[in-house]
């Protein structure tokens, strides 16, 4: 499960598909980014 967030309306949602060309299910914009997981955040430190 991958966590995404819409940069337009700040709606956050989960998806089983990991691709960045997602469309926001709330506002319909294609301004969606993948949110980093806890592991990814810890690796940055």
What does this structure look like?
- The protein is of the alpha+beta class.
- It has a single domain (2-44), classed as Rubrerythrin, domain 2.
- The protein is built from one helix and three strands.
- The protein has a three-stranded antiparallel beta sheet with strand order 2-1-3, with no helix packed on it.
- β1 (2-6) and β2 form a beta hairpin.
- The model has no long low-confidence stretch (mean pLDDT 87).
CATH topology: Rubrerythrin, domain 2
Q: Strand-residue fraction?
A: 25-35%
User: Span between N and C termini?
Assistant: 23 Å
Low-confidence stretches: none
Specify the structural class.
Answer: alpha+beta
Described by the principal axes of the CA atoms, the overall outline is: elongated
- The average pLDDT score comes to 87
Count of beta strands: 3
Strand order in space, largest sheet: 2-1-3
H-E order: EEEH
Briefly summarize what is shown.
The chain has 45 residues and is α+β, with helices and mostly antiparallel strands. The protein is built from one helix and three strands, in the order E-E-E-H.
């Amino acid at each position: 499960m991958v966590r995404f967030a819409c940069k337009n309306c700040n709606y956050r949602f989960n998806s089983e598909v990991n691709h960045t060309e997602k469309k926001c299910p709330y506002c319909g914009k294609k301004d969606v980014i993948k949110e980093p997981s806890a592991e990814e955040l810890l690796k940055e430190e």
